[in-house]
Amino acid sequence: MIHGYAYKPIVEAVSAQLARGSVWSANNRPQVELAEQIVRRVPSIEKVLFNNSGTEAFNLALNICRGATGRYKFLMAAGGYHGSMFDPSLGSKGLPGPSHYVAPYGDTEAFVAAIQQHGKELAGVFVEGIMGSGGFAQAPKSFFDAVKQAAHDVGAIFVLDEVISLRLSEGGHQATLGIDPDLTMMGKIIGGGFPIGGVGGKADLMDLTNPVSGHVLASGTFSGNPLSMVAGNISVAHLTQAKIDQIGAWATSIEAAIKAKSAAIGLPIWTRRVGSLVSWYFYDPGPGVVLGGARPDLAMVKLHHTAMLINGLFPTPRAALATSTAMSDAVVDDIIARFGASLEALLEDTGV
What is the pLDDT of residue 202? Predict the structure, then answer.
């Protein structure tokens, strides 16, 4: 949650909206306002359609790709995460499936080769700005540019998943990289703590979902509901570049403290940080994708997670955390102290 779990402006605005209605099967003013905000912030997005989760955003993006191309299959990065539907959940384990193929993230030659090999079948090519569940692995601009060009060469749609990476810049990670996807998937960042998903992109693609003239069905009773839209409007408006820079600075401090504590007590730890996102490892992961179930330090990660819980911190079980605008310098200092105590407890328990 980019603004914490009970951000007062969101609580007040949603409470007021609740008295006026929580859901109806029609457009509403906050929905239009949120769409306008996103279009202003993200240059590649000309139109937006909302739903209720990142998983639903994937489903919508894939259906748009299929409607645009008349093809069925898609390509994703091995170890990527695009929600809990059957095929992408296989892909998150690095496995192909009945309607998709996988290729190694960041490996331009191999990824382009996979697109060329399966091009006649591909409706869309899906990649994340950074690999959220893949250990915050990153890829350079050249990778995304080559993948987009290869997708277009075979008539496929290039889709960027920014459900996590939208927090890295006012215009999303695509603005940082300087890339221009056909479609962008969005999620929690634009919802302010309420169920949200969204797909935005080029007008001609988004118009395929037009209920009058389009042929791609996009519906849902709770899609674009006013509670999520009101919360999303505040969440997006209050996520200024200054605040993005601040939470990135706090994450930088936490990463530096992890490294310093590691050196001080003789417990080797490697870290990765992307903006306000930090992950850590009890082995050298190199630059590539880290699949949680295959980590060689999995036993240590589990023990450390328990030690962190005992010391009053609740990171993700895969050894990662995200800073938020709800924090302060004092909160960050407290996190650093508790993190240090958890490492000392881990060292004492394991004798590493």
Answer: 98
User: What are the domain boundaries of the chain?
Assistant: 8-238, 241-350
- For residues 84 and 173, is the Cβ–Cβ distance under 8 A? no
Q: How far apart are CA 196 and CA 38, in angstroms?
A: 14
Residue 352, pLDDT > 70, answer no
The beta-carbon contacts of 336-342 under 8 Å, at least 24 apart in sequence, are: 336/253, 336/254, 336/257, 338/308, 338/311, 338/312, 338/313, 339/254, 339/257, 339/258, 339/261, 339/308, 339/311, 339/313, 340/257, 340/261, 341/311, 342/304, 342/307, 342/308, 342/310, 342/311, 342/313
Q: What is the CATH number of domain 8-238?
A: 3.40.640.10
DSSP symbol at 146: H
Structure tokens at 216: 């791609």
Q: Which two tokens stand for residue 59?
A: 């489903």
DSSP per-residue letters across 285-325:
-TTS---GGG-TTHHHHHHHHHHHHHTT---BTTTEEE--T
DSSP state letter for 73: E
Is 80 exceeded by the pLDDT of residue 197?
yes
CATH 3.90.930.50 assigned to domain 241-350? The reply is no
